[in-house]
Amino acid sequence: MSLVDLLRGWLTEPELRGIDPDSARFTRVHRQVLERKRLLRRLFTEFCERCLDADRRWFAGCPSELRLEIGSGAGVMKEVFPEVVTSDVKFLPSVELVLRGEDLPFADGSVRAVYGINVFHHVSDPRDFFREAVRALAPGGGLVLIEPYYGPLARLLFKRLFTQESYEMEVEEWPRHSREQVASGANQALSYVVLKRDRAQWEREFPELELLLDEPHTHMTYILSGGVNFRQLVPSGLGLLLAGVERKATFLNPLLALQHTLVIRKKGEAIRKDELHGTTSSLLSGNSRRRRE
Is 71 left (phi over 0), alpha (psi -120 to 50) or beta? Predict the structure, then answer.
């Protein structure tokens, strides 16, 4: 066993050991970890704020008010922005709808924004995901995705430390996996492969969409907090102090960033508000699945 393997084993959150990463229990434990880590919770709140800020900036011309978060299970979006509809692929007490980003139960052209925080690399087929975005998004609306970055530090850590999910930048084809392998089938380099390396191909296949922003952001506090999978390395107070320093050193983002924010907008003329009928519930198609009470 290598030194890296020993270090990874020691750092892993004890509550997660032996739990199937594709199970609902794994997500519930992630939520419990997030609840007790003040430093990590602050970071997740910042991610939520990034989503809404991008929405306000880039989707201002979209008349729809329907905002959806996918992969909400362990997150805090609903607490930060109650108007956002939360969802996950698993039945969980913290989400409103059970659905997949590749199969949205909403009427055509009815969704203003889809937020995904570390979710895109879990989709079973990126082409299905973007086809569904083209169908469900209203013109002028779009996607806000926060994903693992592809800079030097990100490549080092995601490939060697966060090994529950792969980080393969050299795959020939866009990765696909079984819908049951939500975590174990994920490739954390998916946003790089599709939207950086193969951007020209993505633009040819999805001319209705435009990539407006690919912005790296440094979060050394994520490492210090241990994230949802590892032990916290420093007291929360010290981590918050370092976060303040981090915000003033944005010139280092291309080298040290662990995540990047991607904003993708659907092209076309915005539809009129009177063409959007009723509430969120009325925009759901008949095959939607509400969460279990």
Answer: left
Report the C-alpha gap between 269 and 266 in whole angstroms. Answer: 9
Count of CB atoms situated within 10 Å of the CB of 288: 15
Amino acid at 107: A
CA 265, chain centre distance (Å)? 16
CB 113 within 8 A of CB 143: yes
Tell me if 147 sits within 8 A of 262, measured CB to CB.
yes
At 171 the three-state DSSP class reads coil
Percentage with pLDDT > 70 across the chain: 90
Give me the long-range contacts of 87-95 (CB less than 8 A, separation at least 24): 88/27, 89/179, 89/182, 90/24, 90/27, 90/182, 91/24, 91/291, 91/292, 92/24, 92/27, 92/28, 92/291, 93/291, 94/31, 95/291
| DSSP-derived secondary structure for 174-203 | PP---TT-TTTT-BTTHHHIIIIITHHHHH
* Tens of pLDDT, residues 15-49: 888 898 889 898 998 988 888 888 889 899 999 99
- Asked if 225 and 252 count as a contact pair (C-beta separation under 8 A), the reply is no
Rounded to 5°, angle at Cα 148 from 153 and 6: 60
Give the Cα separation of 66 and 68 in Å (integer). 7
CB atoms within 10 A of CB 69: 26
Show the beta-strand stretches assigned E in 135-285: 137-148, 209-217, 259-266
- Which run of H or of E encompasses 285? none
Per DSSP, 83 falls in state T
Residue 271 carries which DSSP code? Answer: P
User: Tokens in use for 237?
Assistant: 């107070």
Residue type at 133 in one-letter notation: A
- pLDDT over 80 (residue 98): yes
